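Researcher: Here's the sequence for the chain we discussed earlier.
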Amino acid sequence: MLPYHNAVSDQLVVSLFPEFTVYLVYGKDHNLKWTHTTSEVEYPNVLSNCIFSTSRLITAFQNFTLAPLGAVNYASFYELNFGKEKVLSTSNTEEFMEVYKPNERYSLVSKRLVSDLQHTDIELVYQYASQKSYKDALYFYTYDNKLSVLAWKDGKFLLANRFPADNLEEVFYYIMLVIEQLELPADSLHFESVCSKGKHESYHSLFQKYVTPLYLSTLASSAHMAQEEKAKEAEVLAQFFAQCVL
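Model: Thanks. This is the structure I predict for it:
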């Protein structure tokens, strides 16, 4: 684990993935000062006595469904897709309520943070995309053989969904299916991926004959410390999520 020297102006962003927790500490100028990716459940000792100006806790790649704003029995929407769940959480945007299953490590990490602000990956990508002015747009990102897709048509939000995608062919299939089913204009669509530069090149080659050129998110980063490929994926996405909330 890298050494870390705390400053009270530092900001902590923790992203909870199904198998990894990514800890990122940013300085007051939003420069990345410290990072740690782990499959362990324990909170890092080096952070135990640290003070942060803000603490963000992001839940990523959990099962989710969308429900109307103000829904009373929001659990019923989740049950239609995934069955009954004892504990559910919600996250609201200006257009929908996201109902999702909390990460198992959520309570362990949350109790170590002071006044943590909570987010989800779907919420953050939605907010990121909503700030752009594209009428027809599709955004996607992948992690651990799961593909997440958000889509807009004629300036209206239409879709946020996750698909199983074990390989590039399945990524291609589901994205083209979304474009076809939503009747998105493939020749004029704003098409964007949150990923590393290496993955962007692979995706660009995959879609270049069928969809407008694939844009790489400017907030995405290729910087990582992890050795395992899946952990590298988590770090790239975690840095994107962090930039969305800083």
